[in-house]
Specification:
Low-confidence stretches of chain C: none
CATH topology of the domain at 5-253 in chain C: Amidase signature (AS) enzymes
Radius of gyration of chain A: 30 Å
Chains: A alpha+beta, B mainly alpha, C alpha/beta
Strand content of chain A: 15-25%
Distance between the termini of chain A: 65 Å
Shape of chain C: globular
Largest interface: B-C, 53 and 73 residues
Number of helices of chain C: 15
CATH superfamily of the domain at 5-253 in chain C: Amidase signature (AS) domain
Oligomer: heterotrimer
Number of strands of chain C: 11
CATH architecture of the domain at 5-253 in chain C: Alpha-Beta Complex
Order of helices and strands of chain C: HHEHEHEHEHEEHEHEHHHHEHHEEH
Strand order of the largest sheet of chain A: 5-6-9-1-10-11-12-13
Number of helices of chain A: 16
Mean pLDDT of chain A: 92
């Protein structure tokens, strides 16, 4: 165990899934031609004014209610003043004092199954900036303001995490939550869900926090873990060599797998926050909060409890099924087709399907096997139409797009033989062909039974019901 | 409160103003006299007074989440100092 | 000539003249007199005649709006689609606004004709109109003197008969003070009454648009068009819009007028004091009851106002960075150079002073002492007014401490210029409406009187001013006659 302890807090920017921007009626759709979705308000033209989007406020309340946070009844927007070309007004409208969502918490599950509470300090609303394009022109940068004014919920955690793994578990938890709440599409590649990590280290047992650095530009959970681990190592090396950590912003470079200082000469920021005089305090009543609470979808924790209590799933399976909203939705869709088969469906979703998806690098939402087809396959196992072994062949065929389970079983003639007459005939033939083994069995060598089962199954091309084969064989051999 | 030339340089940097060295003293004097006027405020104890940022003490009205604006890029960029390929251009930004 | 809006509407309705004819008259007068007065930054003759023709056609078709065919001038900080909107600044000398301010759109809706855009202190920062990139405006009563500011071009244009009425904006007195110094009537409505959308911001929590005209009755007509709830302005008040013209005959009998003792103590020129006293006597004869009141914190209005206005302005003016519109310096070496030189070259001295003070007041370590302190005092000032309005219907005050001063007289002393606003700025801090109307003369220069009303009581203010103008003729005097 290292003598160093790392202390990690995350700032997560979740783009809220509204159709229009936070303060203007321009579209938030991703991928439009540069500056075609930047209206007069987004461009900060002289004379324009912001008007707050109701959807943004409701989404923030949803999040707040879901993490059991205090919702401010009088939330204030403030201006954060700084100059940057992708910031059209020379200030970002954000929140400083009185953020809409105050203190809350989420619980994460660690690898060993233990759970851990992570505090959420606050979550506030703000507008996103535009984008700078550096590779288009030789001497100049290009500015695209389509993204300017896209609503963001910035979720700030307490420095409660002690390892990169915990940080990733927390980030995944928030990611899952915003997807469940349908307030963010969670697309990390397109930048809809961005994580900045504040990392510091201290000697174990110390209570003072060390100097922290802020890691930016991380667009996957894998990179988040790597970037944090790199930074922890870098800081340990620094301190062990007698150096000091400088408070700075560092960019993660995924290609080189390293972090580097963002500016050699970091200018002391003085953002001159003050309440935005163009916007008034947002009044949120208890009724508003209760209305949002009543409209919340079932959240992961509730789902998990229901899966265990009413569906009889194991706690482990319930945990994994609900960790990701799409997995839960898939499972529930399959369950709708076969309501009695919760446990075997869960096993197939988390087993063969998860394995195949993982191998192919496909998200469950894009699975080539629909929930209904997976349920159909599981049903055929349950009613003894096919064996578990044949089922794997059928699964593969559904994956390849050959149709649903029934069609494939029919086309390939995979229906299990359950007619005992047919099985008896096969058994008789095998017994007749292997007198030596029959003798061994009758002499007390029980293991030989496996040989006979194998032979019968082989003769049946795997279609005989193994349980039936087993029972009938015993009878015949003893006779 | 009297501002020194360095204070003026710092403020000008925050406000992104390329202040000429030749006028720094003049600005320092003007700004100091304004600050002197402003310091009259200290006469009144306001420790128990809530700040008032909007004269009507009203609350924010909300807009429905719908798209009301269409693409006016050509019109907006006709008045821009330097555009190409639909992008506003500035000297290279180094991150 | 000096026809008012009411006279013109009558002439248009009776067929005495067409909108094209009256518009041509004004354009000719502008062409003749503007070179010496410098009231207009842009004269939009072609647009005016086109709008006049459309107005004549609409009237002929029986579709005349309330201001159909009436020529107007707009302060050059209302964005006008396709027309330069300079704000009196080099920064926006090349800025052709790509959209209409709500006020402009409503003037168009009601059939008004735009003669041009009027001169102003740069970004509305000033009390003399000397801070304009386009040069000072001459006061029609004495061309060596200032017209007041920041809506100096609008006030002088109305006084000189270059337009029957004009739009203006008032952040700390910018409608009322030039109205007083030019001998015209101007009203600053309650904050939130007139949409700020498209009205280039100086200080967002103080700015308010309003009309300048020859009479309270004309102000009522123009305010009717300018005012109203606007979805695009979060600070716009969603309250019923009264019929201001219909409310004009409310009279003054039995109304209680408060006289703040702090306003009549010191600092007011004695000869102006005499003029105001005569007006007070007149009001009393008209049946008003006079009550002495106190506005205890009013003397702090100036420092409070300047901290808030400059802080908001420093942020509001950050968007002028040479990237998307406005002035850009030649050959920027890098991004910082682009920002700093574009802004240094684009803004005038007073604007830069205010940006710097505002930046300082918001900066780390000073916020509480300056900005927060000012916002706390702002509440006390508002409470003083609220308390007074439990006892009175109106508050009467001077508008300016002196008559129009000579151009250049205060140019090198920003603080003494700020002190010109002593009687006007407290209203903006409180968000209250106030009207400035001619009350007499000192040495041939107009003196204004100010009536302050309770929230959203523009009707009451206009009615009081109208009643006074029914028994006096100060507002009918013309320069040079």
């Amino acid at each position: 165990m290292s003598e160093w302890e790392s202390v990690i807090g995350l700032e997560i920017h979740a783009q809220l899934a509204t159709t229009s921007k936070i303060f203007s009626g321009a579209s938030t759709a991703f991928g439009a031609e540069p500056n075609t979705q930047a209206c007069a308000v987004d461009l900060g033209l002289p004379g324009v004014l912001p008007v707050l989007n109701r959807g943004v406020v409701e989404m923030a309340i949803r999040f707040g209610v879901a993490i059991d946070a205090d919702i401010d009844h009088r939330s204030i927007f403030a201006r954060k003043n700084y100059f940057y070309p992708d910031l059209p007004k020379g200030y970002q409208i954000s929140q400083y004092e009185h953020p809409i969502v105050g203190r809350g918490h989420v619980s994460i599950t660690l690898d060993d199954g233990a759970t851990m509470e992570i505090g959420v300090t606050r979550a506030h609303l703000e507008e996103d900036a535009g984008k700078s394009v550096h590779d288009r022109f030789a001497e100049q940068s290009g500015i695209d303001l389509n993204r300017a004014g896209t609503p963001l919920l910035e979720i700030v955690s307490e420095p409660d995490m002690r390892s990169a793994k915990q940080a990733v578990a927390y980030a995944r938890k928030i990611h899952s939550l915003v997807r469940y709440l349908e307030i963010c599409d969670g697309n990390m590649q397109e930048g809809s869900f961005r994580c900045d990590a504040n990392v510091s280290i201290r000697r174990r047992g110390e209570s003072e926090l060390g100097t922290r650095t802020e890691l930016k530009n991380i667009n996957s959970f894998r990179f988040l873990e790597r970037a944090i681990n790199h930074e922890i190592e870098r800081q340990i090396d620094l301190l062990e060599d007698g150096g000091a950590v400088v408070q700075e912003t560092r960019l993660y470079d995924a290609d080189r797998d390293e972090t580097r200082s963002m500016r050699s000469k970091e200018e002391a920021n003085d953002y001159r926050y003050f309440p935005d005089p163009d916007l008034l305090p947002v009044a949120i009543t208890d009724d508003d909060i209760e209305r949002v609470r009543a409209s919340l979808p079932e959240l992961p924790e509730q789902k998990k409890t229901r899966f265990v209590d009413t569906l009889g799933l194991s706690a482990d399976n319930a945990e994994v099924l609900t960790a990701n909203r799409d997995t839960a939705l898939y499972f529930e869709a399959a369950l709708e087709a076969q309501p009695e088969l919760a446990a075997p469906i869960a096993n197939w979703v988390l087993g063969d399907l998860a394995g195949a998806l993982n191998k192919a690098g496909i998200e469950i939402g894009d699975s080539p096997i629909s929930p209904a087809r997976l349920a159909g396959l599981v049903a055929r196992i349950a009613d003894d139409t096919i064996s578990g072994k044949i089922a794997k062949e059928v699964f593969e065929a559904i994956w390849q797009g050959e149709g649903d389970a029934d069609a494939i079983i029919e086309a390939r003639g995979l229906k299990q033989i359950t007619d005992s007459g047919a099985i008896e005939a096969l058994i008789d033939a095998v017994i007749a062909d292997n007198p030596e083994q029959v003798e061994q069995f009758r002499a007390g060598k029980e293991k030989v039974l496996g040989f006979f089962v194998g032979q019968v199954m082989k003769q049946s091309q795997g279609k005989a019901n193994p349980g039936q084969v087993n029972a009938l064989l015993r009878d015949k051999l003893k006779a | 409160m009297s501002l020194k030339p360095d204070d003026v340089r710092n403020i000008a940097q925050l406000a992104r103003l390329h202040i000429d060295e030749a006028v720094i003293d003049e600005y320092a004097a003007d700004l100091s006299s304004i600050l002197e006027l402003v310091e009259q405020m200290n006469r009144v104890d306001t420790s128990d007074v809530a700040p008032l940022s909007n004269p009507l003490d009203a609350t924010q009205r909300l807009r429905d989440d719908s798209v009301s604006e269409s693409d006016e890029r050509d019109k907006f960029q006709a008045i821009a100092p330097d555009v190409a390929d639909g992008l506003y251009r500035v000297p290279k930004v180094i991150e | 000539m000096a026809r008012g809006v009411g006279d013109i509407l009558q002439g248009l309705e009776s067929g005495e003249f067409s909108s094209v004819e009256i518009t041509q008259d004004y354009l000719e007068r502008i062409e003749r007199l503007n070179p010496s007065l410098n009231c207009f930054i842009s004269v939009t003759g072609e647009i005016a005649l086109e709008q006049a023709r459309a107005a004549d056609a609409a009237r002929a078709a029986g579709e005349a709006g309330p201001l159909c065919g009436v020529p107007l001038a707009h302060k050059d900080l209302f964005c006008t689609d396709g027309v330069r909107t300079s704000c009196g600044s080099r920064m926006l000398d090349n800025f052709i606004a790509p959209y209409d301010a709500t006020v402009i759109a409503q003037c168009k809706r009601d059939g008004a004709v735009m003669l041009g855009k009027t001169n102003m202190d740069e970004f509305a920062m000033g009390s003399s109109n000397e801070n304009s990139y386009y040069g000072p405006v001459a006061n029609p009563w004495d061309p060596a003197r200032v017209p007041g500011g920041s809506s100096g071009g609008s006030a002088a244009a109305v006084a000189a008969g270059l337009t029957p009425a004009a739009t203006g904006t008032d952040t700390g007195g910018s409608i009322r003070q030039p109205a007083a110094l030019c001998g015209v009537t101007g009203i600053k409505p309650t904050y939130g009454r007139v949409s700020r959308y498209g009205m280039v911001a100086f200080a967002s929590s103080l700015d308010q648009g309003g009309p300048l005209a020859h009479s309270a009755a004309d102000c009522a007509r123009l305010l009717q068009t300018m005012a109203g709830f606007d979805q695009r302005d979060s600070t716009s008040a969603d309250t019923a819009l009264p019929d201001f013209s219909a409310g004009l005959d409310g009279g003054l009998a039995g109304r209680r007028i408060g006289l703040p003792k702090e306003y009549f103590a010191e600092g007011l020129d004695a000869r102006l004091g005499d003029v105001i006293q005569q007006a007070i006597d007149e009001l009393q004869q008209m049946g008003a009851e006079l009550v002495e009141i106190s506005l205890a914190n009013i003397d702090l209005s100036i420092p409070v106002y300047y901290v808030i206005a400059m802080a908001e302005a420093s942020s509001n003016l950050s968007r002028y960075d040479g990237v998307r519109f406005g002035h850009r310096c030649d050959d920027p070496a890098d991004l910082e150079d682009l920002y700093k030189r574009s802004r240094w070259e684009g803004f005038g001295a007073e604007v830069k002073r205010r940006i710097m003070i505002g930046t300082y007041a918001l900066s780390a370590g000073y916020y509480d002492a300056y900005y927060l302190k000012a916002q706390q005092l702002r509440r006390l000032i508002k409470q003083d007014f609220q308390q007074a309005f439990t006892r009175v219907d109106y508050i009467l005050a001077p508008v300016t401490p002196e008559t129009a001063f000579e151009i250049g007289a205060k140019a090198n002393d920003p603080v003494s210029m700020y002190l010109q606003d002593i009687y006007t700025i407290s209203l903006n801090l409180a968000g209250l409406p106030g009207i400035s109307l001619p009350a007499g003369f000192v040495d041939g220069l107009p003196v204004g009187m100010q009536l302050i009303g309770n929230y959203f009581d523009e009707s009451g203010l206009l009615a009081a001013a109208h009643a006074y103008q029914q028994v006096t003729d100060w507002h009918l005097r013309e320069p040079g006659s």
